[in-house]
Amino acid sequence: MFTLLSVAAVAWTVITGIVRLDLLDNAVQVRLTECHQEGGGRAGSHSVCSGPQVGDETRTVEIQYEGQPGEVVRAAQKPWDSYDPVETGFVAWGIWVLVPVVCLMATAGFGVLTGREICRVRQQFRGHDRVSGARSGHGDDDDGSSGAVAPV
Hints:
Elements lengths: L1 H19 L7 E4 L2 E6 L5 E9 L2 E9 L7 E6 L5 E3 L4 H44 L19
Antiparallel strand pairs: 1-5, 2-3, 3-4, 5-6
């Protein structure tokens, strides 16, 4: 189960990294007209801003971003239709390159552990079949003793 969750984490971090770094070069510019806080509770709140896409004023884009009205921001669309702000700094590149690598290493580790567990279970199953289904190779008169005579 951890292996499958790790594969999903790798996929999510790769897709998010591609979007956040705008590696597909499909970012749009958004002129922020409104920003407000959403959420709360345990997870905390986050700022959400929205505004029209520059060049297509009829289309409104909403992004999770700590911004101010009037600011123009580059945002890229994720496959699930939400937008993320494009990050261009060195730290952002480091994060969005390293996070998928770390997730991939965790996936490999969980995969190795899963493979070992599968092999262990198979060996136990095969061993169980041999004991219950076949003779051990010892004679019928074998009582488990080594045959040596103990001194008196």
